[in-house]
Design a protein that fits this description.
5 strands, disordered C terminus, rod-shaped, mainly alpha, Arc Repressor Mutant, subunit A, two-stranded antiparallel ribbon, 6 helices, about 65% helix
Length: about 180
Amino acid sequence: MLGEIYIDNNGKAAGGGYYRVEIIAQLFGVSVRRIQQLTQEGILPTTETADGRRYDLVPTIQSYVKYLADKAYGKNHSEKELELKEQKMKADIALKESQGELHRLKTDIAAGKYISIEEVQVDYSKFFVIFKKFALSIPSKVAGIAQTVVDPVIARSLEKDLAYEVNNLLQGFVVAAKVEGGEGK
């Protein structure tokens, strides 16, 4: 049996007593799980009693009626719902952006703005082979030019010193590359 409801001096309904979730669910014509969900969403208030969490009848009915009215008029009632909608909207935006980026990349690839990794590796390797040959030829060219001006022994010494320096600099430019079999070079 439900408790007695009365209007207090401030014109607010009071009384009615505290009831278990099963009674509230039966009263509203919904499942116990639905009442628990509404409680978790902050729509239905509960009170801690000696028998555990209970629903004060009048505030519970008022809250549920307000919830239904807000829902009928399309008002958002739950901060959690707003937060979830905002997260979904951010995820949708991120998805659209990534899809746009993917489309742009595919278009650029089709237009020839990008080349394959293999092509880059081949070009990179060719460049360094040519650069190394060029750099290693510098000492002999300089010595040949110097021989016309200085003693051939000094020119040969200059060539050896330059070759030593060029070799040391080239060692500093060693590029780790993956070759077949997983060995570095």
